[in-house]
Write a structure and sequence with these properties.
The complex is a heterodimer of chains A (491) and B (609). Helix content of chain A is 75%, strand content 3%. Chain A is mostly helical and 491 residues long. In chain A, helix 11 runs parallel beside helix 14, helix 14 packs antiparallel against helix 19 and helix 15 packs antiparallel against helix 16. The longest helix of chain A has 34 residues. The chains are: A mainly alpha (491), B mainly alpha (609).
Chain lengths: 491, 609
C-alpha cells in the first residue's frame, strides 16, 4: 500500500522521461493516457482502502534524504489528501484524453503534463516541508511552459505574469517555512523539516502571526484570494484547454490545501486572530468576482472569475472554525475541481470549433452541438451548486457550518448562490441560445460544426459522473474528511 | 416499494427519454412520458387510500453526516402529501396527453426533449410533495426551478424565451437562497431536518428564532409562487409552450410554495409574527395581480396574473390560520386553472401559434364549441359561481378573511370581483363578438383534435365536481368547516356582478372599453406595467448590476488592482536601470565616485572629532 502511493506519485515522472525520449506521437498519447489511468486506479484503490475512522496519516513512507539538514523523504495522506489525490488523478486522465488530438509538439506537451502530474500528486502527499516546497515550485515550471508554448495570443505575458506572481508568493512561503524550522532548531536543538515534528510545537503568538502571514501570502496568491488574483484570469485566458483544466482543478487547490494542512494546525491562535480579515476577503471575493464574471465577454475569463468566487467559499469555510464548514470547504475543493475542469473543457471545445472565446461571436450553438449543450449545462449546474451534484453538498456544508458562529457572514456569502446562477446562465444564454439574433453567415458556419467526439465525451463524463456520485451519495465522501477536519480544528 | 415507484416512474421516464429519445422518436417519448405520469397517478391512488388510514414513511438512504446528525432521505405519506400527489399526477398526466396534440406540429424537431423536461418536472415536484425532510424538499425545489428554466426557454432560439427563462431561474434562486438559510436556521433550532421530528419539537423552541426560520423559508415560497416582490418572472414565463404554462401554474411549481408552507404549518402556527407577513404578502399580491390582469390583453398572461392572484389568496388564507382553505383552494385551482390554460392553448393551437392577443380573435364559440365550453366552465369555477369547485374553496377563504377582520374580507371580495371581471372579459372577447381574426390566415379556425379535447373534458368534470369533496377533504385533514350562507350569498353576488359588468361591456357594448381605458390611461398603464415593478427590476436592478459590474471591472479591476500589479514591472525595471548606471564599466565614473567617496570619508573623519 505504501509503495502504491509512491508509485502513483512517480509513475508519471517515469512516463515523462519515456515520452520525452521516445519521440513518437502515438506513443506519447497512449503512454500518457494509460499511465494516468493506472495512477487513477492506484489512487482509487488507496481511497477505497482508506481507514476513515483512524486519525493521522496513512500509507506513510519515510526515508532519510539529507540527514544533516533534517530533510527526509516523507509522504503520507489523510482524508483530505486522499480525496484531492483522487480528484487530481481523475482530472489528469480527463485532460490527457482531451488532448488526444494535439498536434503541436505532442511529445513535449505530454511530457510536461506528466511532470505536472507528479508535482501535483506530490504536493498533496508530502509530509516534509522541503519535499513539499520542492513539489510546490516544481509544478510552476511545466505550467509555465504549457502556457508559454501552447497558449493563445498573449501567452508570453500571461506565462510570465503567472510565474512571477506565484513565485513572488512562494518566496514568502519559503521564508515562513524557514522561520518555523529555525524556531524548531532553537527550541530543541534538532534541525528538522518534518511536518509531523513541527505539529507538536505551540509557537509564541508573535511567531504564529508572522508565520501565518508568510504562509498565508504564499497560499493566497495561489488560491487566488482577492486582491492578489489578477494573474489567474490572464493565465486562464491564454492557457491551452488542458492547461486551464489542470490550473483550475488542481493548482488552485494547493493554496486552500495549504491553509488547511499548514496554516490552521501550525498557527491555531493566529488563525483565530485573522478570521475577520479572511472572512472579509472571502466575501469580497465571492461577490466581487461574481460581478467581474458577469462583466466579461470572454468565456474563459468568465469561468476564471467564477473560480475566484468559488474559492472564496472555500476560504470562508476553512476559517469558520466549524467541523461542517471545514468538511464543506474540503468538499468544495474536490467539487470545484470537477466542475471547473468540465467548464474549461466546454470553453476549449467551443474555441476548437469556432475559434473564438468571445460571446459576441457566439450564440445559438445549442441546436448544432447538442451533446456539448447538455454537458456544458451539467458542468455549469455542478459549478453553481445545483442539488444532486457535488457543489451543492459543499456549499450547503460551508454555509451551514459558518452560520453557526457567523450567521451574518454566511448569509451575505450566500448571495454567491444567486450571483453564480446569474453569470453562468447569462453566459450560457449568450453562447448557446438566441439563434434568431444570428447573422446568416454564422448560421451557415454553425451548420457545419462537428459535435463532441468520443474522446471529448469521455473526458467530460469522467468528471461529471464523479460530480453526480458525490452529489447524490455524499455520505462516504464526507465521512472520509471528518477525522482530518477534527484534527485540524484541534479536536 | 410501491410508494417509491410513484417518485421513480417519472424519473425513469426522464432518464430513458433523455438518453434514448433521439433514437426512440418523439411519439415514443411522449407515450413514455405519459405512461410515467399515469403509472405514478395510479400508484398514488393506492398509497392515498393507505395513507388516509395510517400515515407512513419510507426511508431511502443515509445521505450525509452533518456533525453528529445523519441526514436520511425518505418519503412521508400522510393525508396532505398523498392527496396532493394524486392531484399533481392526475393533472400532470392530462397535460402530458394534451401536449401530444399541442406539440404535434413540432414533432421531428427533437421534441423528445420536451417530454424529458416534463418528466423531470413531475419528478421534482413529487420530490417536494413527498420528501420527509427539508433538504429533500430543497432538492425538488431547485429541480422544478431547473425544469421550469428548461421549459420556459424551450423555444430557446427566441430571445424572448431565453430571457424569460433566465429571469425565472434568477428570481427563483433569490428565493432559494432564503430557503437554504431557512433550512440552516431550522437545523440549528431543532437539531434535525426531518419534518416529523420538527413537528414533535415545535413547541419547545425559541419563538423569535422560529419566526426568523419561518420567514426565511417563506422567502423561498415567495420566489417559487411568484408572490411580491419576486413576481415578475411569472407572467413572462408564458414564453414557454402552453402545456408548460398549464403545468407550471396548475399543479406544480407555483403550487409548491403554498404546499411547502402548508407542509410546515406547525412551524408557522407557532410563530404568529411570521404568519402576519405571510398574510400581508399574500393579500397584497392577490390584489396587485388581479389589477394587473384587468389591463392585459395577452391570452395567457391574463390567466398567469390570475394564478398569481389566486396564490395570493391561498397565502392569505394560510396567514390567517386557515390551512385547509388554502390547500383545498390549491386543489380545486389545479383543476380549473389547468383547464383554462388548456382552453387558451387550444385557441392558440387553432391559429397555429401565431395569435396571442385576445383582441385579435373573437367570435370563436361557433368554431370551437368544446373549447368554449371548457373555458366557460373554468372561468365560472375561477369566478366562484355556485356550484362549481371554485365556489366552495373560495368561500372557505373569504369566510376566514371576514372572520379575522372586515378589512381582509373586503379585500378578498374586491379580488373576487376583479377575478370574475377579468376572466369573463377574456372569455367574451375571445369567444363572442365579431370575428376579428378574418384576414389573418387562410381557412377557418377549427376545433382541436380529440387528444387535446379529452383531457379538457376530464378536467372540466373535475372543475365542476371537486368542490363537493370539501367535507371529505376537511375530514381527512382533521378540520371541520361549515358553509356560511351569508358569505356564500355575498360572494355569489360579487362574482355575478363582475361577470355582469364584463357581459355588459364586452358583449352588449354599453361602454366602449377602449375609450374607458384611454380615459384612465395613467391608471391603466400602472396596472399593465405591474406598478412599474418589471421595469424597475429589468432596468434598475438587473441593468444596474450589469452596468456597475462593468464599471467596476474597468476601474477597480483593470486599472487599480491589475494596474498596480503591472506597475511592478516598470518600477523594478527603472530601479534596475538606475543602479545599472553605477556599474556599466565606465572608468571615468568609477574614478570620479571613488575620489568623491574618499573625500567624503576624509571630511567625515576630520569633522567628527
Amino acid at each position: 500500500m505504501e509503495l502504491l502511493l509512491n508509485l502513483a506519485i512517480f509513475l508519471p515522472l517515469v512516463g515523462a522521461v519515456a515520452v520525452a525520449l521516445v519521440r513518437k506521437e502515438k506513443f506519447a498519447k497512449v503512454v500518457s493516457i494509460s499511465l494516468s489511468s493506472l495512477v487513477f486506479f492506484m489512487v482509487l484503490y488507496l481511497f477505497l482502502n482508506f481507514n476513515w475512522q483512524a486519525q493521522g496519516f496513512q500509507y506513510i513512507t519515510r526515508l532519510e534524504w539529507i540527514p544533516s539538514l533534517g530533510i527526509s523523504y516523507h509522504v503520507g495522506v489523510d482524508g483530505m489528501a486522499i480525496s484531492l489525490l483522487l480528484m487530481t488523478a481523475l482530472v489528469f486522465v480527463s485532460a490527457f484524453l482531451w488532448s488526444w488530438k494535439v498536434e503541436d509538439r505532442p511529445n513535449l506537451y505530454f511530457a510536461l503534463f506528466l511532470l505536472l502530474e507528479t508535482a501535483c500528486l506530490g504536493v498533496f502527499s508530502a509530509l516534509d516541508f522541503f519535499l513539499f516546497y520542492l513539489f510546490w515550485e516544481g509544478m510552476l515550471i511545466p505550467m509555465y511552459f504549457i502556457i508559454g508554448l501552447w497558449g493563445h495570443d498573449r501567452k508570453v505575458y500571461a506565462a510570465n505574469k503567472f510565474f512571477v506572481y506565484t513565485f513572488f508568493g512562494s518566496v514568502f512561503l519559503l521564508l515562513g517555512l524557514a522561520s518555523i524550522v529555525v524556531y524548531g532548531y532553537m527550541m530543541t536543538g534538532k534541525l528538522s523539516f518534518d511536518y509531523t515534528f513541527h505539529l507538536g510545537f505551540s509557537y509564541p503568538l508573535m511567531l504564529q502571526i508572522a508565520g501565518f502571514l508568510l504562509f498565508g501570502l504564499g497560499f493566497a496568491v495561489k488560491i487566488p484570494m482577492w486582491p492578489v488574483h489578477t494573474w489567474l484570469p490572464d493565465a486562464h485566458v491564454e492557457a491551452p484547454t488542458a492547461g486551464s483544466v489542470i490550473l483550475a482543478a488542481v493548482l488552485l487547490k494547493m493554496g486552500t490545501f495549504g491553509f488547511v494542512r499548514y496554516s490552521l494546525p501550525l498557527f491555531p491562535e493566529a488563525s483565530k486572530h485573522f478570521i475577520p480579515l479572511i472572512f472579509f476577503l472571502s466575501v469580497v471575493a465571492i461577490i466581487y468576482a461574481a460581478m467581474m464574471a458577469i462583466a466579461q465577454t470572454h468565456i474563459k475569463r468568465l469561468i476564471a472569475y467564477s473560480s475566484i468566487s468559488h474559492m472564496g467559499v472555500v476560504t470562508l469555510g476553512t476559517f469558520a472554525m466549524d467541523l461542517n464548514a471545514l468538511n464543506g470547504a474540503i468538499y468544495m475543493m474536490v467539487a470545484h475541481g470537477l466542475s471547473s475542469g468540465a467548464l474549461f473543457m466546454s470553453a476549449g471545445f467551443i474555441y476548437d470549433r469556432v475559434h473564438s472565446y468571445h460571446m459576441e461571436d457566439l450564440g445559438g450553438l445549442a441546436r448544432y452541438v447538442p451533446k456539448l449543450a447538455v454537458l456544458f449545462m451539467l458542468s455549469g449546474l455542478a459549478g453553481i451548486g445545483f442539488p444532486g451534484l457535488a457543489g451543492f453538498v459543499a456549499e450547503f456544508l460551508v454555509f451551514l457550518g459558518t452560520y453557526k458562529n457567523f450567521p451574518l457572514w454566511a448569509f451575505v456569502a450566500g448571495v454567491g448562490v444567486v450571483l453564480s446562477a446569474v453569470y453562468f446562465l447569462y453566459m450560457y444564454k449568450r453562447v448557446m441560445f438566441e439563434e434568431e439574433t444570428l447573422s446568416e453567415y454564422r448560421l451557415e458556419k454553425w451548420k457545419h460544426l462537428k459535435d463532441l467526439e468520443t474522446h471529448h465525451t469521455l473526458s467530460f463524463l469522467l468528471l461529471i459522473v464523479l460530480a453526480f456520485l458525490m452529489g447524490l451519495y455524499p455520505y462516504p465522501f464526507v465521512k472520509i474528511l471528518e477525522q482530518t477536519s477534527k484534527y485540524v480544528l484541534g479536536g | 416499494m410501491e410508494a417509491l415507484a410513484i417518485l421513480l416512474s417519472p424519473l425513469i421516464a426522464f432518464l430513458l427519454i433523455g438518453l434514448f429519445g433521439s433514437r426512440m422518436g418523439d411519439m415514443a417519448s411522449a407515450v413514455l412520458c405519459i405512461l410515467g405520469g399515469a403509472f405514478s397517478f395510479l400508484l398514488s391512488l393506492w398509497t392515498t387510500s393507505k395513507a388516509l388510514s395510517e400515515p407512513f414513511a419510507v426511508k431511502l438512504y443515509d445521505f450525509m453526516p452533518i456533525g453528529n446528525y445523519t441526514l436520511t432521505l425518505g418519503l412521508y405519506f400522510d393525508a396532505l402529501s398523498s392527496i396532493t400527489t394524486s392531484v399533481v399526477t392526475f393533472v400532470a398526466t392530462l397535460i402530458f396527453v394534451y401536449s401530444v396534440g399541442y406539440m404535434k406540429e413540432l414533432f421531428g424537431q427533437w421534441t423528445f426533449k420536451f417530454y424529458a423536461y416534463l418528466s423531470l418536472f413531475l419528478f421534482a415536484m413529487l420530490l417536494i410533495v413527498l420528501s420527509d425532510n427539508l433538504l429533500g424538499i430543497f432538492f425538488g425545489w431547485e429541480g422544478v426551478g431547473l425544469a421550469s428554466y428548461l421549459l420556459i426557454g424551450y423555444f430557446h432560439t427566441q430571445k424572448k424565451a431565453s430571457n424569460a427563462s433566465l429571469e425565472a431561474f434568477t428570481l427563483n434562486r433569490v428565493g432559494d437562497w432564503l430557503f437554504l438559510f431557512g433550512i440552516i436556521a431550522t437545523f440549528y433550532l431543532f437539531g434535525t431536518l426531518s419534518i416529523t421530528e420538527i413537528f414533535g419539537k415545535v413547541q419547545a423552541v425559541d419563538k423569535a428564532l422560529l419566526g426568523l426560520a419561518c420567514l426565511l423559508l417563506f422567502g423561498g415560497a415567495v420566489g417559487k409562487s411568484g408572490q411580491l416582490p419576486l413576481h415578475t418572472w411569472l407572467p413572462n414565463a408564458m414564453a414557454g409552450p402552453t402545456p408548460v404554462s398549464a403545468l407550471l401554474h396548475a399543479a406544480t411549481m407555483v403550487a409548491a410554495g403554498v404546499y411547502m408552507v402548508a407542509r410546515l404549518y406547525p412551524m408557522f402556527e407557532n410563530s404568529p409574527q411570521s404568519l402576519k407577513v405571510v398574510a400581508l404578502i399574500g393579500g397584497l399580491t392577490a390584489l396587485f395581480a388581479a389589477l394587473a390582469a384587468t389591463s392585459h390583453t395577452d391570452i395567457k398572461k391574463i390567466i398567469a396574473f390570475s394564478t398569481m392572484s389566486q396564490l395570493g389568496l391561498m397565502f392569505l388564507a394560510l396567514g390567517l390560520g386557515d390551512k385547509m382553505g388554502a390547500m383545498f383552494h390549491l386543489t380545486t385551482h389545479a383543476f380549473f386553472k389547468a383547464l383554462l390554460f388548456l382552453s387558451a392553448g387550444s385557441v392558440i393551437h387553432a391559429f397555429h401559434h401565431h395569435l396571442y392577443e385576445i383582441y385579435e380573435a373573437g367570435g370563436l364559440k361557433r368554431y370551437m364549441p368544446a373549447t368554449y365550453a371548457s373555458f366557460l366552465v373554468g372561468a365560472l369555477a375561477l369566478a366562484g359561481v355556485f356550484p362549481l369547485s371554485g365556489f366552495w374553496s373560495k368561500d372557505l377563504i373569504i369566510a376566514t378573511a371576514y372572520h379575522v377582520s372586515f378589512l381582509w374580507g373586503v379585500l378578498t371580495s374586491v379580488v373576487s370581483f376583479l377575478t370574475a371581471y377579468y376572466i369573463f372579459r377574456e372569455g367574451f372577447v375571445l369567444f363572442h363578438g365579431e370575428e376579428r381574426f378574418r384576414g389573418r390566415q387562410e381557412g377557418e379556425p377549427h376545433e382541436s383534435p380529440g387528444v387535446m379535447v379529452v383531457p379538457m373534458v376530464l378536467l372540466a368534470v373535475m372543475a365542476v365536481v371537486a368542490g363537493f369533496f370539501e367535507g371529505w377533504y376537511g375530514g381527512v385533514l382533521g378540520v371541520k368547516k361549515e358553509l356560511h350562507l351569508d358569505i356564500a350569498l355575498l360572494s355569489t353576488f360579487v362574482a355575478l356582478s363582475g361577470i355582469g359588468i364584463a357581459y355588459l361591456v364586452y358583449v352588449r357594448g354599453f361602454v366602449d372599453p377602449h375609450r374607458v381605458y384611454e380615459s384612465l390611461k395613467p391608471l391603466h398603464t400602472t396596472f399593465r406595467e405591474q406598478f412599474f415593478t418589471e421595469r424597475l427590476y429589468h432596468n434598475v436592478l438587473a441593468g444596474g448590476y450589469l452596468f456597475y459590474s462593468k464599471i467596476l471591472y474597468m476601474t477597480a479591476e483593470r486599472q487599480l488592482i491589475d494596474g498596480l500589479v503591472n506597475l511592478t514591472y516598470p518600477t523594478v525595471r527603472s530601479t534596475g536601470s538606475l543602479f545599472r548606471t553605477l556599474q556599466r564599466g565606465k572608468l571615468n565614473f568609477y574614478v570620479l565616485s571613488l575620489s568623491f567617496s574618499f573625500l567624503l570619508l576624509l571630511a567625515l573623519t576630520l569633522l567628527w572629532r
